[in-house]
Amino acid sequence: MIKKSIAVWILMILLTGAILSGCDSAVEETPEEDTEAVIQTSVAGTLAALAEIESATAAAIVPTDTPTPTETSTPTVTLTPTVTMTPTPEFPRVSVEIDTNCRSGPGEVYGILGALRVGEEAEIVARFDEGDYWVIKNPDQPGQCWLWGYYATVTGDVDSLPVYTRPPTPTVTPTPAVLWTGSWTTFIQDPVEREEGFWVFTVTVNQTNNTASATAVGSEESWGTIQMSGVLSADQTTWSGTWQSADESGAFLWHWINPNQFNGNMGGDLYWCGFREGAGRPTPCMYP
């Protein structure tokens, strides 16, 4: 398209020149036949020039092959699964398979402060290198306690935990083998006048070391209330002392048969025995 426009412009220029030349010739009164011959000669030269230009332009322009588009396959995108990271707990924690007591130290000699139950978790605050125990935050009250690790499952980093040493072993006051403290149903009877039956008193005893005191309340209002006090034998199986009512007083002795029965006497003349926890009245009732 460009080369044709150039040719047209050149042709127009040459024609204009030819016409002007013709005009000049007309002035000079050139014959008409010569003028036409000149124009034809000019046109022929112009066409020859255009042919040369077109040939040169065609030689200079090298056609570019337009590539035929080929079908390209769409790549298959493989999705990488998202990895859900489980956060590491800031502090190690412990749970148990079986409900486990939590104590004031590593062992049964230490008192129970709470318990870690199945389904609960507790934070571990320290470890114990001498045995299978963990020091945890008490699940039941403020403070810390020692958890036996036999049934425990621990999660988290425990290497950086502080190491606790064994606390002092608590001083345990042994429970006496004989303990009179409690409520007793007692029976007092005159061995001579047995047909009168028993007088029934409920006696509440408080024992402190080797002494004891008590209040005895009769089952009938007319029998009143008796106050008792006395001392225990070395083995604490015998409690002896005095009793005092509103208008009478005297001596008594109770003798331990088992944890829930005793026999004895009042002043050496009357039977006095008793029981607790449903054990029933002992036989014989008199002692000694």
Number of strands: 15
Q: Give the N-terminus to C-terminus distance in angstroms.
A: 149 Å
Counting H and I runs of at least 4 residues, what is the number of helices? 2
CA gyration radius, whole angstroms: 63 Å
Order of helices and strands: HHEEEEEEEEEEEEEEE
Order of strands side by side in the largest beta sheet? 8-9-10-11-12-13-14-15
Low-confidence stretches: 22-30
Helix content: 10-25%
Q: Tell me, rounded to a whole number, the average pLDDT.
A: 81
Report on this structure.
- This protein is α+β, with helices and mostly antiparallel strands and 288 residues long.
- The protein folds into three domains: 2-55; 93-155, Roll (SH3 type barrels), CATH 2.30.30; 182-275, Porin (Beta Barrel).
- The protein is 19% helix and 34% strand.
- It contains two helices and 15 strands.
- The protein has helices spanning 2-27, 32-60; strands spanning 93-96, 100-103, 112-116, 122-128, 133-137, 144-148, 152-155, 182-189, 199-208, 211-218, 225-232, 238-244, 249-258, 261-266, 270-275.
- Strands 8-9-10-11-12-13-14-15 form an eight-stranded antiparallel barrel. A seven-stranded antiparallel beta sheet has the order 3-2-6-5-4-1-7, with no helix packed on it.
- β14 (261-266) and β15 (270-275) form a beta hairpin.
- α1 (2-27) runs antiparallel to α2.
- Mean pLDDT is 81; it is low at 22-30.
